[in-house]
C-alpha cells in the first residue's frame, strides 16, 4: 500500500548557496527514499548554478542532480515541510512550531577538490540513510542503492 500524500513526510535541506550540500542531500533522499519521502532543497543566498564538483561526485554514484537548480529559501517552503535540515545557515531559516529542525555540521564543498567533496558526499549519504530509517522505520533504502550493506554471517560462522 503506498502512502497517501498526507502520510508522505517532506524534508527540506537548506544551505547558503543551495549548490552543493543541500542538493546532494536531496539527491540522496530522492534516490534512497523513493516515493516515500518528498525531498526539497533551498538556499538563503542561492548561487547561479550547481557546484560542478558536487554534480560529478553524485554522478559517480549514478545520481543525476543536473536538472536541479539553486532555489531561494522562503517561509512558505519551510512552513509546508515536516523536517528542516540546515547546513551552515540555521540562523536564516524561519522557525515554525511543530516542525522538526536539525543542523548538520558539514564542510562546504565550494572550492574543494573532488576527493574532499567525495568525503562530504559520503557523510551526507550516511546522514540521509539514518534520516530515512527514522522517518520511515519499516522501510530500507531501495535495494541495490546502498553501499553500506555487509554480508550476513553463515550459520557456521555464528557458532565459531
Protein described:
With 160 residues, this protein is an alpha/beta fold. The protein has one domain (10-155): Rossmann fold (3-Layer(aba) Sandwich). Helix content is 32%, strand content 12%. The chain has helices at residues 21-33, 52-59, 75-79, 114-135, 155-158; strands at 10-15, 38-43, 83-86, 100-103. The longest helix has 22 residues, at 114-135. The chain starts with 9 loop residues before the first strand and ends with a helix. Residues 1-5 and 143-160 have low confidence and may be disordered.
Number of helices: 5
The CATH architecture classification is 3-Layer(aba) Sandwich
Spell the H/E element sequence.
EHEHHEEHH
Sheet-strand content, in percent, reads 5-15%
List low-pLDDT spans.
1-5, 143-160
Adjacency order of strands in the biggest sheet: 2-1-3-4
Number of domains: 1
Distance between the termini: 42 Å
Radius of gyration: 17 Å
Structural class: alpha/beta
> CATH class, please?
Alpha Beta
Helix fraction, binned, reads 25-40%
Assign the CATH topology: Rossmann fold
The CATH homologous superfamily is termed: Response regulator
**Globular, elongated, flat, extended or rod-shaped: what is the shape?**
globular
